[in-house]
User: What shape does this take?
Amino acid sequence: MIRAIVGANWGDEGKGKVTDMLAAQADIVIRFQGGANAGHTIINHYGKFALHLLPSGVFSDKAVNIIGNGVALNIPSLLKELKHVTDGGVPAPRLMISNRAQIVMPYHVLFDQYEEERLSHKQFGSTKSGIAPFYSDKYAKTGFQISELYDEAYLREKLESVLAVKNILLEHLYNKPQLSVDELFNQLIEWRDAIDPYVADTVAYLGSAVKEGKTILLEGQLGSLKDPDFGIYPYTTSSSTLAGYGAVGAGLPPYEIKDIIAVTKAYSSAVGAGAFTSEIFGDKADELRRRGGDAGEFGATTGRPRRMGWFDCVATRYGCRVQGATQVVLTAIDVLSYLDEIPVCVGYEIDGKVTEDFPATVDLNRAKPVLKTLHGWKQDVRGITDFAKLPQAAQDYVLFIEKELGVPVKMVSNGPRREEIIHR
Ligand code: GDP
Assistant: This one.
């Protein structure tokens, strides 16, 4: 059985906690896209960890963790993260890295920084971790697959031809120092030797695993609205954040993905630039950000303060649709307990007309939120594990969202800990 866990919004929906819960039951946990540019926070019996590249099954003693071919592999980040986990008392994880995954090169990180510097105030709010230059090169066919590190003559020759172009850009577009083939070659060989114990033909491995009926969890990063096709382009990431891409980024049959769990938070938050229709500002935003605390304040990887907003039914319904969600997890309802009334965004007004369908970016930029106000519950809801024991207004809030999304909300999360979850 293959199941995917993905974000319905901008990322930071609280996928980490849910993934950690589900990873504990999985035989195999796979990262299929993205890189070390985002991450999630996991709190379990070992302590609190920020994961960026490692699959969440690293805390389970039975799970095999796979970094799939679709991932942007930053080798020094991976090695650092492995150390962070084992230093924290977690047993050395069972890890496999696809030999078809490509490598984030040191110059990808540099180009990301230089390009944001060049764009200055027009920048996209990149995390500057090299992700956009990495995927550009992958699709321009000038990327480096892990498998290529094992043919040294081929590697050196390819480095010479790729760096010839990079050095022209460095010198003439960015006015920055040039790169040396020898230095980079030696660096890559050193990295190859460090990850060698984990490199494998994961497509062959997964082919057998599917036949044997193993429980496989595909772990998404970021969310629908950051997808390069369906997200708020160009304020998106550079690899698909959708469950459907899991088949490609891991090497699995698409029809085997039976369960698609979309995670959404009971309010909205986003990092970086781009339209954010239900955004709130000033004291209201500060208060929500502060109450969000763990859940709301800063990105797990970037440490950037988040932009805050009310729950957005239009964006989230669309986010669930493009994921093909079979169920929804609504997280962080505990954060809203201080409010007398809770606005939610139920429509977008664009040029005087109200729509409930999420528009493409140029129209989205003109959208104004149509808000509906629901009752608050003004009572701490942490510790409750039975839906019927939630205050009536909190139950109504969940039911309202479920109706708007048209997808069953099967879990409600009311705190950051693994056990703070209500199953319905
Ligand atoms: P991801 O980007 O979707 O993986 O987001 P994370 O898993 O990093 O979640 C963001 C933050 O929300 C983390 O600090 C979590 O501990 C916290 N969090 C997750 N679920 C809940 C919840 O139900 N209530 C509260 N208060 N915090 C939560």
In short: Residues 2-98+200-261 form a domain with the Adenylosuccinate Synthetase; Chain A, domain 1 fold (CATH 3.40.440.10). The radius of gyration is 22 Å.
